[in-house]
Design goal:
about 375 residues; mainly alpha
Length: about 375
């Protein structure tokens, strides 16, 4: 990689918007492709549940470590370089994750995979803020919608290939081929710069950036709860057959994706603050409904409301980061993204601790109360 030139950067236009959408799709597609491989990796290496849990932490730790570094590299070398390198590393890691049988090699690969995903996620959000600001339009929900769509296609596509008899390695080569095609199409229009303002490479979040980061933590914690605990709740407390318990997260992911595709129009119509207020209320109501009404139908409806409510809060918060003047986006975006990932990592563990000490229902209700706090913040935060 070479440092960016001192020439005036190209003002982002339609092709840069397109490349940003593809970047988000690659990020969602890449991380989701790993999920169906987890049982295969567990069996291949011979792991028990406890060891597997510790192994999966390597992915999150790699992501969190890489995010501040990605912001600094994007500011120094431009978004294009970081997005290309991180995407290529993901393409190199996926076949290894599908084939290695050494625990030490799997640990190292998962760490690099997590770091690459964290760098990609952070940098594509930096580019999204710059592109949205240049357009003068609300675009962030649509960008994040492509991440959600990539996740659905990635997980569903790999699961379909595996169900059809393809080996995990063959499935990953198909994924890699798809990602390379997408990267080749988008990379010429990735931004050659990474920040329109100067600032330190690393900084502790403060002021409004810290406040936004804490809100991201709460919403991502909710997403982590849906991912890791919705199926457990349905099977253990609503007597749903385990083979159908995954419908809870599927409903949540579907309404979140749909909400994001319609999100830009919603934000323009009702305003960013009301999106946070009403979204937090909707998500809290959904968790309360799924927890307090003892039927699986109510639980599924509740999870749908959680997905719809949460869908546009994160995009609105990222747009707010692009408008604040406390910290430059190449520092602020890694800060709030790191706090968000911390919510995904810590949230399920905290819920498990509360469920063990009391009940899973109480844990979900506590998350609902936190979402009410997010809703109240919509009246305070200037977005």
């Amino acid at each position: 990689m070479t440092a960016i030139s001192t020439a005036a950067p190209v003002i982002p236009g339609r092709m840069e918007q397109f490349s940003t959408r593809i970047g988000f799709f690659i990020a969602g597609f890449g991380i989701a492709a790993w999920a169906p491989l987890v049982p295969y990796a567990k069996a291949r290496v011979g792991l028990n549940d406890g060891t597997l849990g510790l192994l999966l932490l390597c992915l999150g730790v790699g992501s969190i470590i890489a995010m501040p570094l990605a912001g600094a590299l994007a500011a120094r070398f431009g978004c294009r370089s970081v997005l290309i390198v991180s995407s290529v590393l993901i393409c190199l890691c996926l076949p290894l994750l599908a084939s290695v049988s050494s625990l030490s090699l799997l640990v190292a690969t998962l760490f690099v995979f997590g770091a690459s995903m964290g760098a990609l996620d952070c940098t594509v959000n930096i580019q999204a803020i710059i592109v949205e600001r240049a357009s003068g339009k609300t675009m962030m929900s649509g960008f994040h919608g492509l991440f959600s769509l990539g996740g659905i296609i990635g997980a569903g596509g790999v699961s379909g290939l595996l169900s059809a008899g393809a080996s995990p390695l063959i499935a990953m080569w198909v994924v890699v081929a798809f990602m390379v095609i997408a990267l080749l199409r988008a990379s010429p229009h990735f931004l050659t710069y990474g920040s329109e303002s100067d600032g330190p490479a690393f900084a502790v979040p403060h002021g409004v950036v810290l406040f936004i980061g804490l809100l991201c933590f709460t919403v991502f914690l909710t997403e982590g709860a849906m991912l890791d605990w919705s199926a457990v709740f349905l099977s253990s407390l609503r007597n749903v057959d385990p083979s159908y318990a995954g419908l809870g997260y599927a409903v949540f992911a579907l309404t979140m994706t749909l909400g994001r595709f319609f999100g830009d129009a919603i934000v323009r119509r009702v305003g960013a603050n009301r999106v946070i207020i009403l979204g937090g209320l909707c998500a809290a109501l959904g968790l309360a409904l799924s927890t307090l009404i003892p039927s699986w139908e109510a639980a599924l409806l509740g999870y749908a409301l959680v997905g719809a409510g949460c869908s546009n809060i994160i995009p609105v918060l990222y747009s707010a980061v692009g408008r604040q003047k406390v910290m430059p986006e190449n520092v602020a975006v890694p800060a709030i993204t790191t706090l968000g990932y911390a919510g995904i990592l810590a949230g399920p563990a905290l819920i498990g601790f509360i469920a063990h000490a009391s009940s899973l229902s109480l844990a979900f209700l506590i998350v609902a109360v936190l979402l009410l706090g997010v809703s109240v913040s919509g009246r305070i935060l200037k977005v």
